[in-house]
Amino acid sequence: MGRRELREHIFKLLFINQFHEAPDMPEQFVLYLEELEGLQEKDSMYIRGKCENIIGRQEEIDNVIGETSKGWKTNRMNRADLTLLRLAIYEMLYDEDVPVKVAINEAVELAKRFGGEESPSFINGILGKIAEKHHA
Fold first, then answer.
1. For residues 48 and 16, is the Cβ–Cβ distance under 8 A?
2. CB 90 within 8 A of CB 54
3. Angle CA(115)–CA(96)–CA(19) in degrees, nearest 5?
4. Which region holds residue 21: left if phi is over 0, alpha if psi is between -120 and 50, else beta?
């Protein structure tokens, strides 16, 4: 499975996470991953591990979003946009295997598919500011 497809599954699981209590998430991971035909163990472990890492740093990531998105609190954001921001910011700040430009581009592409009409430009703007601040 390619990185883009893995990232899409991570996005979907992180999105699901917003609608479940923490104790329910291990079961949600299992149910979701069981539905993916031909999923290799290494891909399953990658998806689950990255999701758990992002969820584990969610408070830190949300603070970065709050500092950057003046006038937009995370609880007012479109849930798809918020999920995409969490994924991309994690990749930008904590995942050395993903170049910053790739994290931003992939988030914008996912926003085109899963977000609203304004999502791609909103995501790009927030991530661009974060890239400037943290990678200048």
1. no
2. yes
3. 35
4. beta
Q: Which tokens in the block code for residue 44?
A: 């399953």
Distance of CA 80 to the CA centre of its chain: 9
Residue located via tokens 């979003």: 65
Nearest to 134 by CA among 85, 82, 68, 74: 68
Tell which residue, 131, 94, 89, has the closest CA to residue 107.
89
**Amino acid (one-letter) located at 92:** M
Confidence of residue 135 (pLDDT cuts 50, 70, 90): low
pLDDT, tens digit (0-9, with 9 covering 90-100), for 47-89: 999 999 999 999 999 999 989 987 777 778 899 999 999 999 9
Mean pLDDT of 26-46: 91
**CA R_g for the chain:** 14
